[in-house]
TrEMBL record:
This is Peptidase S8 and S53 subtilisin kexin sedolisin. Residues 268-485 form the Peptidase S8/S53 domain. The keyword Lyase does not apply. It comes from Ruminiclostridium cellulolyticum (strain ATCC 35319 / DSM 5812 / JCM 6584 / H10) (Clostridium cellulolyticum). Pfam families: Peptidase_S8. The keyword Protease applies. GO terms for biological process: proteolysis.
Length: 632
């Protein structure tokens, strides 16, 4: 990382020094170079912790980046897979499942989420491309991309049915089965302690987590001009026409509401059944997305399903995939688990990348109780959305009085101990929202459908975008023009991201300008192709700031169950930007996030170099998406 320089020592390092003694040392397992002193660490983030031993990404002397191992006694060594790999072997049984086993009697049946070996997605992709005579999907027309996604889902479902049912037939009593996925290698079953131990030795089993089928809560505690979605709807005619959107709710929207009487809405049950389970929450969420006058994307088709538990969520989300949706809005969550990467979050990541679905999740409303993101909002590949208050300004967008909603949940990254992704990814209006005849609605439940609606607008206007998830994550986070918090820079390894609001407030017009100006790209890169370089032209006289965003997806496929040494759950990519004279103007180098954002003020005109480093790769290749915007 020769371009990496000029870092500031930050407060959490002082805390770190107080916890770990100054007599600690770094010892290289591969070289005879002099050991580093702990005082030379200027930045650090924990990657994972196993039995009290921590693996961390550290920056020494404001320049050298290394993985280190922090032992229980405070001593540290430079990480070597040969020397330290065994310390971080991934146990098939999750920590919570182990704790449950200890407390359970020998004959008690425990609900367990079992992740088995995955199907061969390369073979699925090859089959579909051969069938449709596709060489490079990025070069295809929208109708061909639509057909490709449909056929890929059909073939994947066929292979999962075959693989999962075969596993159940050979190793599981059907009476024990609670759920068998049609779109992922997931089976939920009831097992005794002895059954769990026996199944954990099966080479086809990857992981086993405790499954808790808790009750879902709605995240609820006119806004669309503030994020420019009304402008692009009325002036650019971006209405999400024909875009299939999934909405997962606890109840059903009232189709007699004037906002929804003429909307394209399809239920998972007969309409007579849905009418008996009408919900104000569902009516509000659906109206924000497809309401005829107040909705962001009234031309979209909304498929609405309901569920009140995790098991129901699994089944209904797969039903939505069957309907061919591109985006799923999830304005709810589970409070029994917060701020953790659960089996459900893992499943969301899987369906997002393998079946080309964008999952939009509300962040939760319990921050005033010091609680974290509601489950499954910690999914890396999800768009997790926090809330802001636009204070009902006249002549929106007027951003001067916008503030972050204090109830909106987020992760804390500044203390370096967060081993999970940074959430939320961005924010949207979620307070004092009037819609569908309901006044002053509040909650991140209201924020999420704003993002879903904007995504529908853009997918309708740019149907050839692919892969949609990573491209839209990069573009939406590069296009956030205004902020409502003052905590940018607290997390020093990615100073252009906020703990509270992620990349900032979504902006539909800025997203449109980024896409229409082709200020984005996507590449599939192997290890030898890193660092990846892309140059952009910047006129400093006309530009106040430039934002660059890098996004990639978490791939949960583990090709071989014998590979139990897993240092990282996610490939670690770093983003740096250099001015025409080669000076670094910005960086983003988080250890556990699949989103990196750099914002800088250009001081000279010319070619600026964007560099993506493959610091630590967990896959044979990574599909990256880059986007950049300029504000005047």
């Amino acid at each position: 990382m020769s371009g990496f320089k000029k870092f500031l020592v930050i407060p959490f390092i002082l805390i770190f020094l107080a916890v770990y003694p100054l007599t600690s040392y770094v010892e290289s397992a591969e070289t005879d170079s002099a050991p580093y002193s702990l005082t030379e660490i200027t930045k650090l983030q924990i990657i994972k912790e196993v039995n009290g031993v921590k693996l961390a990404k550290a920056i020494f002397n404001n320049q050298d980046i290394k993985d280190i191992v922090i032992f229980k006694d405070g001593s540290i060594e430079e990480y070597s897979k040969e020397k330290h790999g065994k310390l971080f072997e991934k146990d098939k049984l999750s920590k919570k499942l182990k704790e449950k086993i200890k407390k359970s009697s020998s004959d008690e049946e425990i609900p367990v989420a079992v992740h088995i070996n995955d199907i061969d997605h390369n073979e699925v992709e090859k089959y579909v491309k051969d069938k449709l005579k596709i060489k490079d999907i990025k070069d295809e027309k929208p109708e061909k991309i639509k057909e490709y996604i449909k056929e890929k889902r059909i073939k994947s479902k066929e292979e999962y049915k075959k693989s999962n049912s075969q596993f159940v037939k050979e190793y599981i009593n059907n009476e024990e089965e609670l759920f068998e996925s049609q779109y992922s290698p997931l089976i939920i079953i009831r097992l005794t302690n002895m059954d769990i131990e026996k199944l954990s030795k099966n080479m086809q089993v990857q992981e086993m987590d405790l499954f808790v089928d808790s009750t879902k809560e709605e995240d609820t505690y006119n806004s669309i001009p503030n994020i420019n979605s009304k402008y692009v709807k009325d002036n650019l005619n971006l209405r999400g026409d024909g875009v299939p959107i999934g909405i997962l709710e606890v109840g059903y929207p009232n189709l007699d509401n004037t906002q929804l009487t003429d909307s394209n809405i399809i239920f998972d049950v007969p309409e007579s059944t849905a009418n008996r389970r009408r919900s104000t929450h569902a009516t509000i969420v659906t109206s924000i997305i497809v309401g005829q006058t107040e909705g962001i994307a009234p031309g979209a088709t909304a498929y609405v399903a309901t569920a009140s538990s995790r098991l129901g969520d699994y089944e209904k989300i797969e039903w939505l995939i069957d309907q061919g949706v591109y985006v799923i809005n999830y304005s709810a969550g589970y409070s029994d688990v917060r701020g953790e990467y659960t089996d459900m979050a893992k499943w969301i990541d899987h369906i997002s990348i393998q079946h080309d679905v964008i999952f939009v999740k509300s962040s939760g409303n319990k921050r005033l109780d010091n609680l974290g993101i509601s489950d499954p909002g910690m999914a890396y590949n999800a768009f997790t959305v926090g809330s802001m208050n636009d204070n009902d300004s006249i002549n929106e967008p007027n951003w001067l009085d916008d503030i972050f909603s204090p109830f909106s949940c987020y992760t804390e990254n500044e203390n370096s101990e967060n081993p999970y992704p940074f959430k939320p990814d961005l924010t949207a209006p979620g307070e004092s929202v009037d819609v569908a005849g309901y006044l002053s609605q509040a909650g991140t439940s209201i924020s999420a459908p704003h993002v879903t609606g904007v995504l529908a607008q853009m997918l309708g206007a740019f149907p050839n975008i692919f892969p949609r998830n990573s491209v839209m994550k990069a573009v939406t986070t590069a296009a956030t023009l205004h902020k409502t918090t003052d905590d940018y820079g607290i997390y020093s390894m990615s100073p252009s991201l906020s703990d509270k609001e992620g990349a900032g407030v979504i902006d539909a017009l800025s997203i449109y300008n980024c896409l229409s100006g082709s200020h984005f790209l996507t590449e599939n890169l192997t290890e030898s192709q890193f660092p990846y370089i892309h140059n952009i032209g910047v006129n400093a006289d006309d530009t106040q700031s430039v934002r660059v965003s890098l996004s990639w997806l978490k791939n949960n496929i583990i090709p071989d169950s014998s590979q139990n040494v897993v240092e990282r759950e996610l490939s670690d990519l770093d983003l740096e930007v250099f001015d025409p004279e080669g000076n670094q103007v910005g960086y983003s180098m988080s250890a556990n996030n699949n989103l990196e954002v750099v914002e800088f003020t250009p001081t000279m005109s010319g070619e600026y170099k964007i560099m993506v480093e493959g610091y630590a790769l967990t896959n044979d290749s990574e599909q990256i998406s880059l986007a950049w915007t300029e504000s005047n």
